[in-house]
Amino acid sequence: MDGGHLPGHHARGRPLVLRDQPAYPCPVRRRWFPVSAPALTVSARRRPRLPRLSALGWIGLVLVLAFCALALLGPLFSLPPDERTGGALEAPSAAHWFGTDDLGRDLFARTAVGARLSLLVALGSVVAGLVVAVPIGLLAGYLGGTWVDDVLMRVMEALQALPIFVLALFVVGMIGTGPTDLGPVTLSAGVKVILLLALSFLPFFARVTRAATLVEVQEEYVAALRVVGVSRRRIMLGELLPNVLPPVLVQGFLWVGVAVFAESALSFLGLGVQPPQASLGNLLSDATSALMIGGWWLSVVPGLAILLVTIGINLLGDEVDRHLGGRH
Fold first, then answer.
1. Which residues pair with 9 in a beta bridge?
2. The model's pTM
3. What is the pLDDT of residues 23-52, one digit of tens each?
4. Is residue 201 domain-resident?
């Protein structure tokens, strides 16, 4: 500095404005430092701006929050789900908001417990699928066009060719639908459904990650990192992974709704969680016989829960995808 003035200022104190750079007003008050100051940094704190949701985005958020509240808080304030608390097939009333089933159990309590189980299975399957698929897709995308990419994608295509219900029938035929003892570990029915769904989601997540990585690898900064000798591992984990994750996580969020629907379908067909443990799928399965004698609420309540949370997740996921698409 010259004469105790800040860099970028004339000796008379007038600001110096470069021709190639526009001058922006700084919201931080200018402060003068002595010449002996080791560094001069003036930083403006910007208040983070939350993205504005559209009307459909708000609807999706409300539906998702309502389902989460039902799943997480409902069992805390409801009647015991496995005990007879009323007459058989009582219609919705002030005492039983969603009515009772054919055994006199409160349907609100059972729906809340079933929603919690379905939500945990859906989240667990998506997280497990992402944990395995993201490294596979990242490696395949970084080594795109090589034999490693070909082998990994052929394996993913083979898994994708197997429908989830065929896999479920195979698993049920091998180890049954109840808890499975594997020595020190016991797999419950819910854990087996999580692993089954994660295996079926694996090809999709891997292909999405690979596609995003192939686009990112073409950026100039990746070529520059290779030129200066940065290791392959550091490029993939330190540079590519943070840029690839946002679109992959959006797809993972959208597939939570798919997982809720898939778990319900498996339990409805008797290939997933089994009674007396409640899930939205086996609640629907138990309601089929009650429909013939007028117990419409037994199928409407869990069916609406599945439908509304699936719609809410898709609406909210599309909104998040729209905001991310504007920045990436």
1. 15
2. 0.79
3. 434 333 333 334 343 443 434 445 555 568
4. yes
